[in-house]
Each structure stands twice: as C-alpha cells, then as structure tokens.
C-alpha cells in the first residue's frame, strides 16, 4: 500500500490530506517514468473525483516511489501563493462608466479594492498576481455592469453580494488551505452580473506540474 496506513486509521484522516498525498505519489511516479502518461491521466481523474478514502488507496496501491525532498521543494514553489512584504496598504479604487477595465499580469494586490461599475465591464485576473495580504476585500457597486474575477486554484473566494435582478456565479471553491489568500467580495449588483472562475482547474495545474517534474528529473514530456 503506497499511502501510509500506520498510526491513525486511514478512514479517520482528513480526506483532502489523503487526496493530496495520493496525487503527489501519482505525479512522483509519472515524473520518473514508472507509469505512462495515459495511466497518469486515468488515475489522476480517479483521484480528483474520488469520494472515499478507499478509492485513493486503490489508485496508488501498486506505486512504491514516494515524493522526496526535491519534489517537495518544487511543489512548494509551484503551489504556494506568492506574497511580497510591503508598506503599501492603500486601497485601490476603480471607476468604470460605459467602458471596460482590466487588471492582469503580475500586479500587486492591495488589501482592499473598491469597484464602481456603471454599465461597464471589469475583469480582475489574480492568476499571476502578487499578494501583500492574506485577506483581501473587494467592495462592489455594480449597476447594469459585468464583473469577471479569475483566480488560480489555490486562492479562496467568498461572495457576500446582494443581488437585485442580477446573477452571481462562484465557480472558485475554497481549498481550506490556511496559508492561501482569501478574497471576500461584498456589496451589491443591480441588473448586473458577477462571475468568479478558475483561470486553470486544479487538474490542469497538476498536469502542468507533473510535466515540469518530468523535465526536472531528466524525462521529456511525452
């Protein structure tokens, strides 16, 4: 059995922790050429969709290679959010009237963002953003406008919006990581829309990371 079953019973361990351990073992064995790309894709689907501890145990039961220190360091660099210490605590204000406003790339995220959107379109892309704070508040006043927020899988998003004849769709699920940034969206939307989407799914991110590890361990992407 590849997952450590000593100590606390596997069924009593946090499910998210066991899933993470199983996925790490899949990536480690794929990156060393022990399983094929097809087997990795198939098993990753099972691990990401698993609903029970036993499914996770079975998907790596025949794998003996465990993540080493080099793998753990690479994983830390890829999956940990980027923080930058700074003294810039100013709020950022965005006013969009009959126009569009986009924030993308490696931008420095303040602790609080105020958005006033009147018949306009606003997009905030946090996929490459550098965070100064773990807790970020976005205050929204939206009239007949659209607001699109894109986040990477390791960022948690909570929406506390008041909607009047409006739509709010939050596709960014919280992972429960205490170190991850949390974005809280509050305010109101009248005859408008708010969409919160993952820039890349966690499965896509795992695939990219697995191919990085193959290169790191001297194997080319198949």
Features:
222 residues, alpha/beta, 5-stranded parallel beta sheet, 5 helices, 12 strands, 31% strand, DUF1707_SHOCT-like
Beta strands, count: 12
User: What does the main sheet amount to?
Assistant: 5 strands, parallel
Q: Strand percentage, roughly? A: 25-35%
**What structural class should be given to the helix and strand makeup?**
alpha/beta
Question: What is the domain total for the residues?
Answer: 2
Distance between the termini: 28 Å
The Rg value, from CA coordinates, equals 20 Å
Helix content: 25-40%
Describe the global form: elongated
One letter per element, helices H and strands E, the order comes to HHHHEEEEEEEEEEEEH
pLDDT average, as an integer? 85
Plain-language structure description:
The chain has 222 residues and is of the alpha/beta class. The chain has 2 domains: 10-81 and 202-216, no CATH class; 92-198, no CATH class. The chain has helices at residues 15-31, 37-49, 53-59, 69-79, 202-216; strands spanning 92-97, 100-103, 108-109, 112-118, 121-125, 130-131, 135-143, 146-151, 156-164, 167-170, 182-190, 193-198. The strands form 3 sheets. A 5-stranded parallel β-sheet has the order 1-4-7-11-9, with no helix packed on it. The chain has a 5-stranded parallel β-sheet with strand order 2-5-8-12-10, with no helix packed on it. The longest helix has 17 residues, at 15-31.
């Amino acid at each position: 059995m590849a997952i450590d079953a000593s100590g606390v019973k596997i069924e009593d361990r946090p499910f998210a922790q066991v899933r993470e351990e199983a996925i790490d073992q899949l990536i480690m064995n794929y990156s060393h050429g022990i399983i094929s790309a097809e087997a990795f894709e198939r098993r990753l689907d099972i691990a990401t969709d698993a609903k029970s501890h036993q499914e996770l145990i079975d998907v790596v039961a025949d794998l003996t290679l465990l993540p080493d220190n080099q793998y753990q360091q690479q994983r830390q660099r890829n999956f940990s959010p980027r923080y930058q210490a700074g003294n810039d605590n100013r709020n950022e204000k965005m006013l969009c009237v009959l126009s569009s406003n986009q924030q993308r790339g490696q931008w420095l995220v303040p602790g609080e963002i105020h958005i006033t959107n009147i018949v306009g379109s606003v997009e905030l892309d946090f996929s490459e953003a550098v965070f100064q704070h773990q807790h970020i508040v976005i205050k929204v006043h939206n009239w007949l406008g659209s607001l699109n927020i894109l986040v990477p899988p390791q960022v948690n998003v909570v929406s506390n919006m008041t909607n009047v004849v409006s739509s709010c769709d939050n596709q960014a699920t919280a992972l429960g990581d205490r170190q991850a940034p949390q974005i809280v969206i509050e305010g109101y939307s009248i005859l408008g829309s708010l969409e919160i989407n993952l820039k890349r799914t966690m499965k896509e991110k795992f695939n990219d990371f697995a191919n990085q590890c193959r290169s790191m361990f001297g194997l080319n992407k198949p």
